[in-house]
């Protein structure tokens, strides 16, 4: 049967793509990460240590204190400077470090605006002995001991900040997923209106453009929420940073200002520009392009090379995904509106036209996805050794489920819609199946977008 042959071809193509991915993944040329530390992590420095030098593979932007040093006696005040075009951070303590173990916590942003942090631990031995403290004058009153709960209070405050920062990071990723969903549905919806809704189906164009307007609002709110959440993350859990102008400015480091600016402008243009006709919705088309540009520049396209190839592949991936995701959503929207208005569902031409568009989109999504993964991964084993790779495999599995549902729609449901002589009842049943299948696909696609947002925000080394 045709569906069985298609399923075998789909599985075979998936396995071939995975094989190519495992066999052909070459080292990515440009990941932003800590390259070296002096003193090195886990080392023991002999003699005086007058500075701590952190060298990164690409220029970074310091966040907050940038470098915090903790020694045997607590926090060590340091002066942080940047050099070598932003790739080197130097932390200079007021006095050379005495013997003992030291922890260095660093916090920076990559060129694409993603916050990065890490810890370096080293020991110092053989340094000049610290000056002995002067004997206290017996006549002087001893200093009062700190309140016993002072340290406990400070620790609790730090834990609260860590919890707030973690929650804000989750909110930021969810907001990023909402922006991505808005871009895919808005752009794909307008493609659906232009390529699928022809002839009598054109009367449903206003319905599609109304849905596009709503996802524009969703994306705009999500961009603002993402900025506020990012400000809290950059401020290391300080909740008030979400509405403090200076903290919001600090959150717009690196390319983040450009990325969020493009996304906000695009979402606003989609919201106000979607009218009742495609010709009258030219501003919404521009908005969808701005949204897409902001998404392409947000993530690994700025930190992985060669840049031109990654950007071109990312554009193809986003465009194909928009045609697929937006089309599936709009099939469900149109059929639901027809059912609510008690109109004939007439889904035969609708289903067949979209099936052609979806088939090409699925193919391009798969090819572009493999190419992007090859460029991003340092080595194939990162697919199962890192959380990033495991999330990618989970995404591929969900995409495969969506593709299987689409295959059933294309080879079983659409032929039922096109078959002559089966009567209105069978056509109505097939249209109901098409609508139900679109709903299932939409649900799984939401999961795919959530996984994609996590992958974009995360480091491949996680």
TrEMBL record:
Q: What is one Pfam family matched by this protein?
A: CopD
Q: Which domain of life is it from?
A: Bacteria
Please name the source species: Isoptericola sediminis
- Transmembrane region(s): 178-199, 211-232, 252-272, 279-297, 317-335, 355-376, 388-408, 442-460
InterPro entries annotated for this entry?
CopC/D, CopC_dom, Cu-R_CopD_dom, Cu-Rt/internalin_Ig-like, Ig_E-set
Q: Where is the composition biased (Acidic residues)?
A: 134-143
Q: Where is this region: Disordered?
A: 129-161
How far does the signal peptide extend, from start to end residue? 1-30
Copper resistance protein D domain: residues covered: 352-455
Q: Which PANTHER family match?
A: INNER MEMBRANE PROTEIN YEBZ
- Bilayer topology annotation: Multi-pass membrane protein
Q: Can you cite a GO biological process for this protein?
A: response to copper ion
Name all CopC domain ranges: 31-124
> Which keywords fit this entry according to its UniProt record?
Cell membrane, Copper, Membrane, Metal-binding, Signal, Transmembrane, Transmembrane helix
**What do the Gene Ontology cellular component annotations say?**
periplasmic space; plasma membrane
User: Mostly located where?
Assistant: membrane
Q: Spell out the molecular function terms from Gene Ontology.
A: copper ion binding
Where does the UniProt annotation locate this protein?
Answer: Cell membrane
Q: What is this protein called?
A: Copper resistance protein CopC/CopD
């Amino acid at each position: 049967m045709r569906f069985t042959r298609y399923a075998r071809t789909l599985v075979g193509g998936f396995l071939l793509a995975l094989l190519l991915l495992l066999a052909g993944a070459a080292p990515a040329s440009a990941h932003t990460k800590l390259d070296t530390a002096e003193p090195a992590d886990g080392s023991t420095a002999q003699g005086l240590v007058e500075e701590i030098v952190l060298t990164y593979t690409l220029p970074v932007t310091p966040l907050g204190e940038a470098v915090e040093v903790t020694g045997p006696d607590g926090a060590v005040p340091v002066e942080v400077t940047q050099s070598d075009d932003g790739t080197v951070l130097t932390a200079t303590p007021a006095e050379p470090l005495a013997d003992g173990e030291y922890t260095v916590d660093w916090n920076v942003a990559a060129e694409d605006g993603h916050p990065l942090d890490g810890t370096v631990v080293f020991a110092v031995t053989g340094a000049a002995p610290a000056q002995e403290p002067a004997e206290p004058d017996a006549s002087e009153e001893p200093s009062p001991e700190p309140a016993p709960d002072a340290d406990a209070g400070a620790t609790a405050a730090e834990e609260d900040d860590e919890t707030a920062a973690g929650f804000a990071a989750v909110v930021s990723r969810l907001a990023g997923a909402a922006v991505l969903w808005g871009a895919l549905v808005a752009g794909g919806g307008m493609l659906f209106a232009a390529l699928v809704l022809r002839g009598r189906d054109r009367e449903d164009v206003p319905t599609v453009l109304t849905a596009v307007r709503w996802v524009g609002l969703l994306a705009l709110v999500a961009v603002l929420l993402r900025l506020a959440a990012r400000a809290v993350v950059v401020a290391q859990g300080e909740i008030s940073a979400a509405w403090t102008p200076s903290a919001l400015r600090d959150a717009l480091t690196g390319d983040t200002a450009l990325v969020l600016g493009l996304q906000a402008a695009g979402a606003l243009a989609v919201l106000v520009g979607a009218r009742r006709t495609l010709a009258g919705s030219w501003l919404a088309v521009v908005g969808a392009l701005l949204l897409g540009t902001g998404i392409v520049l947000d993530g690994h396209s700025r930190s992985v090379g060669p840049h031109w190839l990654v950007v071109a592949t990312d554009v193809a991936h986003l465009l194909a995904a928009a045609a697929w995701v937006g089309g599936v959503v709009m099939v469900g929207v149109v059929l639901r509106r027809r059912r609510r208005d008690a109109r004939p569902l007439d889904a035969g031409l609708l289903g067949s036209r979209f099936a052609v568009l979806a088939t090409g989109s699925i193919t391009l999504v798969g090819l572009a996805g493999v190419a992007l993964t090859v460029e991003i991964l340092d080595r194939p084993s990162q697919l199962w050794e890192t959380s990033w790779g495991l999330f990618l495999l989970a995404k591929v599995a969900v995409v495969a489920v969506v593709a299987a549902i689409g295959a059933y729609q294309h080879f079983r449901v659409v032929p039922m819609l096109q078959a002559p002589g089966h009567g209105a009842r069978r056509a109505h049943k097939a249209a109901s199946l098409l609508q139900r299948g679109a709903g299932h696909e939409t649900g799984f696609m939401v999961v795919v977008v959530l996984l994609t947002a996590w992958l974009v925000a995360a480091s491949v080394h996680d």
